[in-house]
Write a structure and sequence with these properties.
Length: 335
């Protein structure tokens, strides 16, 4: 006869519980049909502690927040475990692809360049070294396609998403980064390119060295634009307008160190950034709040900690619905 929920909770939360008992206890949170019975049992157990003096409505609200947080943590843990497996699979596929590609490249003398692809799924950052010694970080949800000998013998990268590059110097073989809007040409330098499909602009930030930016489709970039260290070129996708700003380049490349710095960022762009960083789905109920702007730094905070900071700074609130985070305007409290 299976153990009752009371016994599973008692054994799983005991200080002397073994691994199997803890796993059995935590598995209860994965069964929606047991949610009502599990909550009641936990509340009964808590009522037998020293919480009887706590205000009942406040206690109920506190418990509900704990319950939602626990469910989300378990969901995110499942995603992380699944992600590790996927990363191992992708690593194996990439390694085989590189080996097979180099085999073809060295064994078959053709005119078409050989391309290799690398991808960083949402919620992760990928780091790689290209055969020429160039060092690349791929941000969450980004992809590159790379050729050792591209068109006209150049080194070519086709980017979707965001990447940081430290390009090995080879004056005889320029390094080209292609985006949907413009190309970035370098010989040896460090820079960041942000070119997500869903973003309104393509942004290049130069850390050191020099880059030349040119486009055959944007009349404002027919002539090359040169950037100096600490400069950032922003090209609006819809209007084609461009501007060059003096910036602290470290703010725009800190993501590769698992730190995000955002200055006067709209809530719309911030939510997109959080979805990529944490691999979660965020739904905005009141669209007008997307125009709120926010300054901040994210280091090692969890997604729930970030949302708690935001709701105490901006007039918003959030709740967990299934596996989605729903954000809406904060309602005025009635007295």
């Amino acid at each position: 006869m299976p153990l009752s929920i009371r016994n599973i909770i008692r054994k799983g939360t005991s200080d002397c519980a073994v691994e199997d008992q803890r796993v059995q206890f935590l598995s209860l949170f994965h069964k929606p049909e047991l949610e009502f019975e599990l909550k009641n049992q936990l509340l009964d157990d808590l009522d037998q502690t020293n919480v009887s003096t706590v205000n009942k409505p406040f206690f109920d609200e506190l418990f509900e927040k704990w319950w939602v947080k626990r469910r989300l943590e378990i969901t995110l843990e499942q995603k992380r475990n699944h992600l590790v497996l996927r990363l191992l699979q992708w690593a194996a596929i990439l390694a085989f692809g590189l080996f097979f590609g180099f085999y073809l490249h060295s064994g078959i003398k053709g005119t078409s360049p050989v391309y290799y692809t690398s991808f960083a799924p949402k919620g992760s950052i990928a780091e790689m070294f290209l055969p020429d010694g160039s060092h690349i970080f791929l941000n969450s949800g980004s992809e590159i396609k790379y050729s050792v000998d591209g068109a006209d013998g150049t080194r070519e990268v086709f980017l979707t998403g965001e990447a940081w590059f430290h390009v090995a110097k080879m004056k005889s073989k320029p390094f080209l980064v292609h985006t949907a809007i413009y190309d970035v040409k370098v010989t040896g330098t460090s820079f960041n390119v942000k070119a997500y499909q869903e973003d309104d602009a393509v942004i290049t930030t130069l850390e050191e060295g020099s880059v030349k930016i040119q486009s055959e489709v944007n009349p404002n970039l027919i002539e090359e634009k040169n950037l100096n260290p600490g400069q950032q070129l922003i090209c609006n996708k819809k209007t084609g307008t461009i501007r060059v700003d003096e910036v602290n380049s470290g703010w725009y490349t800190s993501w590769k160190e698992n730190k995000l710095v955002f200055i006067n960022m709209s809530l719309k762009d911030l939510m997109a950034m959080l979805e990529r960083k944490y691999g979660v789905d965020i739904q905005i109920v009141d669209k007008d709040i997307l125009e709120y702007h926010y300054d901040g730094i994210i280091k090692n905070e969890t997604i729930l900690e970030v949302l708690d900071i935001l709701k105490h700074t901006l007039p918003i609130e959030y709740k967990i619905v299934g596996q989605n985070i729903v954000i809406q305007r904060k309602e005025a409290r009635r007295r």
